[in-house]
Design goal:
By secondary structure, the chain is an all-alpha fold. Helix content is 70%, strand content 0%. The protein has one domain: Tetracycline Repressor, domain 2, CATH 1.10.357. The radius of gyration is 20 Å and the shape is flat.
């Protein structure tokens, strides 16, 4: 197999599911590829460049299926569906959201996704500046929520996960903090899809409200 940055990144994503981001090393990747670690540095200069390449694969996995909104659909539904696609792409890899956070992604599929987001919001009445600030708000919410979601179900905890419902109930003094005790599963995002959808709705409705406020002057 000819080794290049994409082969290295795909190998890293496969290994990620077994060892997590903290356990992923260049030596482990090289061992899996049957080469010495210094060989990898001809293609990826450091761990950050490796993460950039991995994040590109995850982002492209979500973005390559993105199409313009069909006739009659709302920009709100289209933007929310894009966020769901991105979340699912991150959830398909252990620590996938941590991989994507803060990385530099430069790929034609990414540029196309950005263009579609800007065009969709422009067509919905947003200014270019509003669109350029608006869709990253959805993007950042999606990544941040997924980071927390994956952290709370992390395999790194093993059988000692502090976020299990039983341990959550034991952590809070229900007499002193009754509302916190009752709402603990919601506060810590243990309701998965429902929690994500609720927050996503807030962000999208916030974009709509901001545009309407500007239109009212």
């Amino acid at each position: 197999m000819k080794i290049n940055s994409e082969v290295i990144a795909r190998t890293a994503l496969r290994l990620l599911d077994d060892v997590g981001l903290d356990g992923l090393t260049m030596r482990l990747i090289a061992q899996d590829l049957g080469v010495r670690a210094p060989t990898l540095y001809w293609h990826v200069k450091n761990k950050q460049e490796l993460l950039d390449a991995m994040a590109t694969l995850v982002y492209v996995e979500a973005a390559e299926r993105l199409e313009p909104p069909p006739d009659g659909s709302s920009w709100e539904d289209w933007l929310a569906d894009w966020a769901r696609q991105l979340r699912q792409a991150m959830l398909s890899h252990r620590d996938g959201a941590r991989v994507l956070a803060g990385t530099y992604v430069n790929h034609e599929a990414v540029h196309r996704a950005v263009e579609l987001n800007l065009r969709t919001l422009r067509d919905a009445g947003f200014t270019l500046g509003e669109a350029a600030r608006g869709f990253p708000a959805v993007l950042h919410y999606t990544i941040g929520h997924t980071i927390e979601e994956q952290a709370h179900t992390s395999a790194a905890y093993g059988d000692d996960n502090p976020y299990t419902p039983e341990r959550l109930a034991a952590m809070v003094d229900a007499e002193r903090f009754p509302l916190t005790a009752q709402a603990s599963s919601y506060l810590l995002g243990m309701d998965g899809d429902a929690g994500f959808e609720y927050g996503l709705r807030i962000v999208v409705l916030g974009l709509r409200a901001a545009r309407q406020e500007r239109e009212r002057g």
